[in-house]
Amino acid sequence: MMVKLTPPMGWNSWNTFGGQINDKLICEMADVMVQTGLLRKGYEYLVVDDCWSLKERDGDGRLTPDPEKFPRGMKAVADYVHSKGLKFGMYSCAGNLTCAGYPGSFEHEFIDAETFAGWGVDFLKYDYCYHSPIIHGKYLYSRMGLALANCGRDILFSACSWGADETQEWIKGTGASMWRSTGDIFDTWDSIKNLAKQQERFHPYNGLGCFNDMDMLVVGMYGKGNVGLKGCTDVQYRTHFSLWAFLGSPLMIGCDIRSMSQATLEILTNEEMIRINQDPACRQPVKLTGIWTGDDILIYAKFLADGDLAIGLFNLREEKAGASVNLDEVGLPFSTGKTLELSNVWTGEKSRVKNSTIRVELEPCDCAVYRAKVVDIR
Ligand code: GLA
User: Fold this and answer.
1) Ligand 1 center to residue 258 CA distance, Å?
2) Site to substitute for ligand 1 among 13, 51, 127, 181, most atoms within 8 A of C-beta
3) pLDDT of residue 1 exceeding 80
4) Which fold has domain 9-277?
């Protein structure tokens, strides 16, 4: 069985391209992932989402790529993706049909896993549309989990049941390495805000080897593409990325990276933010109460493997807001003689916490994220 120790990172076709996918597009994305340095920063999976197959299985009951979209078949695409040093992902569904109405893997789990393995697939996103109403999700996902674990190839199992049927209670038993803990994302600030808040009750389930997936990133979409809608500002995208990274979500890019802006690239490749996301301990984030913190100001701490803490203060309001938190909440009361040396992930600025209190003024929809070292009070 595929064991993945830190949140998976990559690119997925759905957010921008929906059903408009083909061989040429995927190969171009592979080139761009390398040229822009995204692969070097850790974005290694290139995932083809829904709408890649024909509407019918072939005479042997196998899934068949749409010859208009993928005339060389999927093996050739996988080979190209691999030749660039990337890993190749595909998509299916636990139901009779995928969400867009293509054949799902229900009652074909083992033959499909074998087909994917034969093509050189390294990652399978597995959706939950049109599933049997009488067979519980845990059985449907266990079937595919077992099929993948026995197909002769390491294939990362990415479950996508949106938290339905209390997914968090059973998903780790199915062999999944990540599970969608939210509904679908759209490229609006409201969507980002709602997903972040919706996620709060699931943090205790996140951890090493099976990650809470908050859905693909909309960073850099600016309202264009399949889930485009209104679009967001760079400040909002930076806060969105910071939240997903801080909260331990897989980081799957969803914009058209062939034409992304410099601001988008800088957000997606911030090394300190990625380092917090990929911290080897993968501790769950802990919500802090803060001091007089109103609605829609989220404050989190995360215990990191080297003894540092990550601390994030997120202003989800569309107006300025102050946020403060006492170090008592992270286990450093004044009586310990210790305080924190902060390093701002986005500005690189260093500062030392005085009087046991972190206090920041945040612009609308902005955030402050720190890597914090425990030091003596001088
Ligand atoms: C569901 C999933 C999305 C995407 C679409 C494809 O809505 O949650 O992420 O895969 O299906 O149809």
Assistant:
1) 22
2) 127
3) no
4) TIM Barrel (3.20.20)
- Closest C-alpha residue for ligand 1 atom 3: 184
Where in 54-166 does DSSP place strands (E)?
87-93, 123-127, 156-160
What are the structural domain ranges in the chain? 9-277, 286-376
127, 213, 308, 366: the active-site residue: 127
Q: Is the CB of 38 under 6 A from ligand 1?
A: no
Where does the pLDDT of residue 2 fall: very low under 50, low under 70, confident under 90, or very high at 90 and above? confident
Confirm whether 60 is a catalytic residue.
no
**Cα distance between residue 190 and residue 283, in whole Å:** 27
pTM of the model: 0.98
> How many A from CA of 76 to the centre of ligand 1?
25
Q: Is 344 helix (H, G, I), strand (E, B) or coil?
A: strand
Match domain 286-376 to its CATH number in 2.60.40.1180, 3.40.50.300, 3.40.50.1100, 3.40.50.2300.
Answer: 2.60.40.1180
Q: What is the 3-state secondary structure (H, E, C) of 1-45?
A: CCCCCCCCEEEECHHHHCCCCCHHHHHHHHHHHHHCCCCCCCCCE
Atom of ligand 1 nearest to the CA of 91: 10
What are the tens digits of pLDDT across the range 145-181? 999 999 999 999 999 999 999 999 999 999 999 999 9
CA distance 331 to 329: 6
Pocket test residue of 17, 90, 91, 99 for ligand 1, highest count of atoms within 8 A of CB: 99
Residue 127 bears catalytic tag: yes
Contact partners, residue 166, CB within 8 Å, separation at least 6: none
69: β partners: none
Residue 126 beta carbon below 6 angstroms from any ligand 1 atom: no
